[in-house]
Amino acid sequence: MAKSKPRVKVPKSASAGEVITIKTLISHEMESGQRKDKEGKPIPRQIINKFTCEFNGQPVFSCDLDPAVSANPYFEFNAKVNESGTFKFTWVDDDGSVYETENEITVK
Amino acid sequence: AFAVTGFRALPAMASAEDADKMVMDFTGGKAPESGKIMLNTPEIAENGNTVPVSVEVESAMEGDDLVDSVLILADGNPNPAVATFHFTAMSGSAAATTRIRLAKTQNVIAVAKMKDGSVYMDKKQVKVTIGGCGG
Amino acid sequence: GNWSRAAAQQALTEEDLLATKDFGNVTLVHITDIHAQMKPLYFREPSINLGVGEVKGKPPHVTGADFLKLYNIEPGSPHAYALTSEDFVALANTYGKMGGLDRVSTVIKRIRADRGDDNVLLLDGGDTWQGSYTAQQTAGQDMVEVMNALQPDAMTGHWEFTYGADRVKELVESLPFSFLGGNIYDAEWNEPAFEAWKMYDKGGVKVAVIGQAFPYTPIANPRWMFPNWSFGIREEDVVKNVEEARSEGADVVVLLSHNGFDVDRKLASRVQGIDVILTGHTHDALPEPVIVDGTLVIASGSNAKFVSQVDLDVRDGKVQGYQYRLIPIFSDVITPDAEMTALIDKVRAPYEKELGRVIGHTSSLLYRRGNFNGTFDDLFCQALLEEREADISLSPGFRWGTSLVPGQDITVEDLHNACAMTYPSAYRSMMSGKMLKDIIEDVADNLFNTDPYYQQGGDMVRIGGMGYTIDVNAAMGSRISGMTLLKTGEAIDPAREYAVAGWASVNEATEGPAIWDVVEGYLAKHPEVAIEENRSVVVKA
Ligand SMILES: [Mn+2]
Ligand SMILES: [Mn+2]
């Protein structure tokens, strides 16, 4: 499988106490485990099973994923920001791989 | 006028009872009430492989008025499980969107569990069509 | 028709059609679903247009004599000819062709002169750029040029998107007015892809126009042609845009919609704060607005056969009253605008010779519009069966396509008016009886689902070589019965494979000759067309 590449959209700045919208995408096949290959053999499941978003080390939002989540999982959610800091996004693959990315936000 | 291929071959379909059981497992046996949670889906899927699904739960998301989690199910998929969202006070609002796979026309179900243990449900039918034709 | 044509035309004057009583301070002019028809034409309204559930028997699901009775229209009158299928051939001979964008131009100029240029908004509901040979050849450029001359204030779209995303962007960027679509989103990041709404200052009144493109464009048409755009009804966005417009001071909120009539009727009942919905897509022509919880729903027909004029009296920040008329464009009565005639001639000039090439002759009425098989599609189905050596043929239930009256030559232009599109390949494939039934059931539900939000607004797929019975009120998946292979009289076997030919597949890389070549090939062998009324579809309503 091609290396999964996360992309996120986070505003660069916000005012204190503002609720902002965050959007994330990661390229991933989300192989459901229900398909068969050309020889009729089942293709083993391999999905992103967990997504988390933290801000300055505190949990903001997370999701447990089942195989019914589409390829290239997309999440849109909100976060309330009271101070400047760093968002950390983490995707966990069935194969144990962990994909991460971080974004800074300045609170004025 | 039609997409004559395109339906993925799938094993025997799960029943709506499986979905009911998953709801009960999530709520701890409590029957969910209606209201408070709004599930938003397209009426007809543009592509059964990627159907946008949004939920929003009425909540201040502070103090005791917190949404803990939201379970998403699809009652006509081989396995009804789709995803579970977990919120915190730092979520600001209990709203989230993702994209899901639907094997055929069916109901999408969203159940919200509040911090006080109360549970709410919303349900929407999404049509998965062969496509074609038009005005 | 009892009148001679000359007498009829004498009786009907341009002044009768265009003179207006002064009313209010803002005028909306609506035209929609032109389908690239610049020249006068025949277009027979449907003889069958079934409504299901709550809308059963309500306009626009009223046809023929019932329609005349409902709107108190004299049988045989000009309005009877324009608005119904009653006595169509005789009345077509009496009253002549309808439409023509040079006549439309005359009407719009007259409205602007009467009402004051600054008080008039011209709004185009979409399905404007597709549906003719020349539109196909120029990828919509001919229609853009001609419509620009009418100076619209905004448009929305549907079939426009079948020119592909790149071409749509190119044309939209070239427009001297806004292409509005609040329900079109970037499919990757879920962000608005088009301008949703726009405020216009007309005669001191602030008019907000919200655009609503056809919600099911990626389902009814090939999604692969515009993979990065997502549509949908998105009622919550309509609500949001109405609120935004009101908060920015709109006195009048107009939804310029390509939802289709029943979808817009439901929307009007659920969304507060819309004064007028200018609806499109389902090609209905109604002489009066349907009023839903105070919202006027206006249906302006198709093929440039009608122009709608909505005069609004707006005072103290709200609509106090309205005056409405659906203006039928009788092409022999309304003087063409010479400038527009010249422009139309110019854009058609490179193709004029080919457009006029005669490829057949018809002794029967050829029409498409109606819920089930029409004679024009029966000709297509016959051509597909023979030319592609199939057991069964399928022709999509499009609502565009002009009519030909008995005695007319069939020209290249006429043929392409019924099939000009960017995915014309006539496929031939093997399908099981079960798959055929699944397809037909699926299309039937898209048309007859009792919840309008689940309808796509076309007509039933037309079928050649096979008969069936349909119960439109039955549940999803159980409307169709009695599927019979006509050539043997045997019931369709779910397990057997049949050779099926059809056109307009939404699948990428569909193979086969273009449908116009198939039909032209058939006409070369059978130049004299006489289609009998189709009796192989039995409708239980
Ligand atoms: Mn149309
Ligand atoms: Mn349309």
Report what the structure shows.
Chain A: Residues 9-102 form the Sulphur oxidation protein SoxZ domain. Chain A: InterPro entries: Ig-like_fold, Ig_E-set, SoxZ, SoxZ_dom. Chain A: It comes from Zhengella mangrovi. Chain A: This is Thiosulfate oxidation carrier complex protein SoxZ. The complex is a heterotrimer of chains A (108), B (135) and C (541). Chain A has 108 residues and is mainly beta. Chain A has no helices and eight strands. Chain B is mostly beta strands and 135 residues long. Chain B has one helix at residues 16-27; strands at 37-40, 51-57, 67-74, 81-87, 94-100, 106-114, 119-126. In chain B, a hairpin with a 4-residue loop joins strand 6 and strand 7 (119-126). In chain C, helix 8 (141-150) runs antiparallel to helix 13. The model of chain C has no long low-confidence stretch (mean pLDDT 96). The chains are: A mainly beta (108), B mainly beta (135), C alpha/beta (541). At the B-C interface, loops of B face helix 10 and helix 17 of C. The structure holds manganese (II) ion (2 copies).
Helix content of chain B: under 10%
Largest interface: B-C, 24 and 52 residues
Main sheet specs of chain C: 6 strands, mixed
Number of helices of chain C: 18
Strand order, largest beta sheet of chain C: 4-3-2-1-14-15
The geometry of chain B reads as: globular
Domain Calcineurin-like phosphoesterase (chain C): 27-284
InterPro entries (chain C): 5'-Nucleotdase_C, 5'-Nucleotdase_C_sf, 5_nucleotidase/apyrase, Calcineurin-like_PHP, Metallo-depent_PP-like, SoxB_N, TAT_signal, Thiosulf_SoxB
Pfam families (chain C): 5_nucleotid_C, Metallophos
Protein name (chain C): Thiosulfohydrolase SoxB
